[in-house]
Amino acid sequence: MHVDPYIVLGSAVVGLLVGMTGAGGGALMTPMLILLFGVKPSTAISSDLVAAVVMRPFGSAIHLRRGTVNGRLVGWMVLGSVPMAFLGAYLLHAIGNSHSAQQHVQVALGAALLLGAASMVLRYLIDRKSGNNRGALIHEVVARPLPTIAIGMLGGIIVGITSVGSGSLMIVMLLFLYPALGASQLVGTDLTQAVPLTLAAALGALAFGHVSFGVTASLIIGSVPAVVIGALISSSAPDRYVRPAIAFVIFASGLKYVGLATPALGWVLVATLLVGAGFWVYIAHPERSKASRAPD
């Protein structure tokens, strides 16, 4: 079993983002293995799933300890996601592991994520202008069982068919179903519900996939410490820092799923970071904020 130090480093970067945002694990880790390290797609997917079974509970534990996990929402989502993950795996088997079918699902998912990222930015601007508070306490968020189960079912079947992508989509749907949910609760709840879902998918990968234990070990060594650091940040950082990170990772995931080439994806993300940083400096500048509040 060979541990690749470069995979360890790359997985640490992705693990940090997963811990901070709860999203982007499969969307970033699997393409990294395939495109940068030449790992076969089936091996990359299976190895990433098995590594995620070890990685995600560490991030979840941090949020559970900090009290930023809504257990009721986790329970309802898991009720829908785990059975549908197995159904998705069966559907994938029934259609013969068709690459074209997976591609269609991923493109549709990418379009939904891009729309979700744009909606998150729009919501942020509206909330900032209206002064709405999106930081309700855990006991203040009233669970809506049927829509929450539906979110879990959709995420589960996507994981069963494509092995990736459910975290980002479920984050977006949770945000709009529970608009008062704080960013730290959003991340903690999503990380926690992903533990049994990932376990179900990983059992299928171990049974029918092509797991490379060297790649898996490299991913675990890099991602586990990083996801802990990311979870510590997201469980205590203010919403105004965590939500932009979530939107950025979902935006990156969406671009990847719609098929944007890796070089173009890199340039788009760099440009997005520069524009976003400039915008954040513009709206956060103390003197400008005072001027905007000053009477005419």
Helix percentage range = over 70%
Strand content: under 5%
- Strand count, sense and closure of the main sheet? none
First-residue to last-residue Cα separation: 69 Å
SSE-based structural type:
mainly alpha
pLDDT < 50 runs, ≥5 residues: 286-293
Structural write-up:
- This protein has 296 residues and is mostly helical.
- The protein has one domain.
- Helix content is 82%, strand content 0%.
- It is built from 12 helices and no strands.
- It is globular.
Quick overview:
The protein is mostly helical and 296 residues long.
Top keywords for this entry?
mainly alpha; 296 residues
Helices and strands in order, then pairings?
Elements: H1 5-21, H2 25-37, H3 41-66, H4 71-94, H5 99-130, H6 145-162, H7 166-177, H8 183-208, H9 213-236, H10 239-257, H11 262-284, H12 286-293
